[in-house]
Write a structure and sequence with these properties.
The structure is a single chain. By secondary structure, this protein is an alpha/beta fold. It has 3 domains: 139 residues, Glucose Oxidase, domain 1 (3-Layer(bba) Sandwich); 109 residues, Enzyme I, Chain A, domain 2, CATH 1.10.274.10; 299 residues, Phosphoenolpyruvate-binding domains (TIM Barrel). The strands form 2 sheets. An 8-stranded mixed beta sheet has the order 1-8-7-3-4-5-6-2. Helix 2 packs across helix 6. The structure holds phosphoenolpyruvate (PEP) and magnesium ion. Phosphoenolpyruvate binds next to strand 10 and helix 20.
């Protein structure tokens, strides 16, 4: 029966496919399709993994001391029984043979299927056996890790199919939609360029970093869909409507046909926009507007060039560090990554932000949750200043990359005059260290993010020390309105058009403009076409966003007349007109 699950729209478009439920702890498991000739060897890998665990458990049984608690023996019996369970074995075979999932993926998929049945059991004792099943599967996965792996095919784009194809072909080669309770930004990186055609998560806000990465992948996504991962079953047919922020489960043929039609329309619109790629972003009244790209990894840079970006406006370097708690990238590794971006951008300017770890971007999953108020804690520049040696390693890497092209260094979340002083002192020291070492480095421009109201109110002070400012509206809205950007339960209050937010943004832009300093917006509002005219009206001429959003924003710029928009924007600021009803320009 068809039903829909509402959530928040975070990445536009329509995806139609089968649901793949992924438990939060299984995200690291590789997800890729195998070739038909690999089916037998994949099944064999699972078989060998399982046999190794059986051997291990039997050995434990034999070596068990006489005085061992009898619960332990019973537990081993249960685990051995679960290992022999026909449902596990046949289910895994099914996913490998019918869907061409790799062995690990098949195993965790079947775990979700059986786990769901355990959840529904009346009997407490039986219900709790789910944890045993999870342990058993973890053991198999661990054994499989040590085994020879077939080469994973390169993870090209998801296999998109038309709705007609889907009705005809219900076996392999069907788009897959990932459904999970929660995914961290680091998890999302694992899925970047993966086989999935869309995402749904139970939790998350519109500008949570999970949503931001989903948007950068340019595939439809819905977050904050509450119980989605409970309501959907493994392999259910689902539609993700990334425009409306809804997931439709088990759609009827009529609904499928309607969404198939919309999918084709979206594709046509994309093709139409693609023609603007080489058109300069100039308004009707001749104002030149810079459209820059936000990137998370060096490999994202070519997409920025392809989309016609005139540079990188925000490289979120923390993504290089995530999930690498025990092995953080050193100066050399960072230098190579930054240099790669500079070279990929072919002479265009690159703004690289120093690490912004903390809040909803933990360095490591393990360290999540033990901080009372992470968004107000040791985050971003505070984190860097707490570890000056690490901070300087990053600064040196950035200065070295600057020998290969124009690098602007951007500092996140500055709020205090003392932080500015300490930051600049570290910059000075880092350069002196490179000089002392005789290492080649280049000149850099220095900029500050305006992300907290305190910074916005101190624009003049900031401008005494920095060459440029970049307004991070994601955090500026969060901290001005006291709304956790990652919490879906307050997402209705997260309002980019709130008068206080608009006032802060407007004042920062006008002060920079008056002083002839460059200012951009690199938060999600910069890539939101419904905000473009207002920002232009407020005097903004530099927007940084995910490459996939650039052409839609360019279209808005080409249609705009900033003379009319600036009059209207002042009326919006004074409350005389509504931003949403504007038709100016
Ligand atoms: C912002 O806060 O608007 C911003 C661009 O930084 P991030 O989203 O990475 O916090
Ligand atoms: Mg921010």
């Amino acid at each position: 029966m068809t039903f829909s699950v509402p959530g928040l729209a975070v990445a536009r478009g329509i995806a139609i496919g089968r649901a793949v439920l992924v438990g939060a702890s299984r995200v690291e498991v590789a997800h890729y399709f195998i070739e038909a000739h690999q089916i037998e060897s994949e099944i064999d890998r699972v078989r060998r993994g399982r046999n190794a665990v059986v051997d291990e458990l039997q050995r434990l049984q034999e070596e068990m001391p006489q005085d061992a608690p009898h619960e332990l023996a019973a537990l081993l019996d249960v685990h051995l029984m679960l290992l022999q369970d026909e449902m596990l074995t046949s289910g895994v075979k099914h996913w490998i043979t019918e869907r061409l999932y790799n062995a690990e993926w098949a195993l965790t998929t079947q775990l979700e299927v059986i786990g769901r049945q355990f959840d529904e059991m009346e009997d407490d004792y039986l219900r709790e056996r789910k944890a045993d099943l999870e342990q058993v599967v973890d053991r198999i996965l661990r054994h499989m890790k040590g085994m020879a792996h077939p080469v994973a095919p390169s993870p090209g784009s998801p296999r998109r199919k038309t709705q007609q194809d889907l009705l005809l072909d219900d076996t392999v080669d069907v788009p897959l939609v990932l459904v999970a309770h929660d995914l961290s930004p680091a998890d999302m990186l694992l899925f970047k360029k993966s086989v999935f055609a869309g995402f749904v998560t139970d939790v998350g806000g519109k500008t949570s970093h999970t949503a931001i990465v989903a948007r950068s992948m340019d595939i439809p996504a819905v977050v904050g869909a509450r119980a989605a991962s409970q309501l959907v079953r493994q392999d259910d047919w689902v539609i993700i409507d990334g425009d409306a922020g809804v997931m439709i489960v088990d759609p009827s043929p009529i609904i499928l046909a309607e969404y198939g039609f919309r999918q084709r329309q979206i594709e046509l619109e994309r093709q139409r926009l693609a023609r603007l790629r080489h058109t300069p972003a100039i308004t009707i009244d001749g104002q030149k507007v810079d459209l820059l790209a936000n990137i998370e990894m060096p490999d994202d840079a070519p997409a920025a060039v392809a989309a016609g970006a005139v540079g990188v406006g925000l490289f979120r370097t923390e993504f290089l560090f995530m999930g690498r708690m025990d092995n953080l990238p050193d100066e050399e590794e960072q230098y190579l990554a930054y240099r790669q971006v500079v070279e990929s951008m072919q002479g265009l300017p690159v703004t690289i932000r120093t690490i912004d770890i903390g809040a909803d971007k933990p360095l490591d999953k393990v360290h999540r949750g033990d901080i009372l108020n992470p968004a107000l804690g040791l985050r971003a520049i505070r984190w860097s200043l707490a570890d000056p040696a690490m901070f300087r390693a990053q600064l040196r890497a950035l200065m070295r990359a600057a020998a290969h092209g124009q690098v602007n260094i951007l500092f996140p979340m500055l709020a205090h005059p003392s932080e500015i002083a300490q930051t600049l002192a570290q910059v000075h020291l880092a350069r002196a260290e490179l000089d002392a070492r005789g290492t080649v480095h280049g000149p850099t421009r220095l900029g500050a993010m305006i992300e907290v109201p305190a910074a916005a109110l101190m624009t003049r002070y900031f401008l005494q020390y920095f060459d440029f400012l970049s307004i991070g509206t994601n955090d500026l809205i969060q901290y001005t309105l006291a709304i956790d950007r990652a919490d879906e339960s307050v997402s209705h209050l997260y309002d980019p058009l709130h008068p206080a937010v608009l006032r802060l943004v407007a004042d920062v832009i006008s002060e920079c403009t008056a002083q002839g300093k460059s200012v951009s917006v690199c938060g999600e509002t910069a890539g939101d076409a419904t905000m473009t005219r207002l920002l232009l009206g407020l005097g903004l001429r530099s927007f940084s966003m995910h490459p996939a959003q650039i052409l839609a924003i360019k279209q808005e710029v080409l249609r705009a007349d900033t003379r009319k928009l600036s009059v209207w924007a002042q009326n919006v600021l004074s409350g005389a007109e509504q931003a949403s009803t504007a038709t100016a320009g």
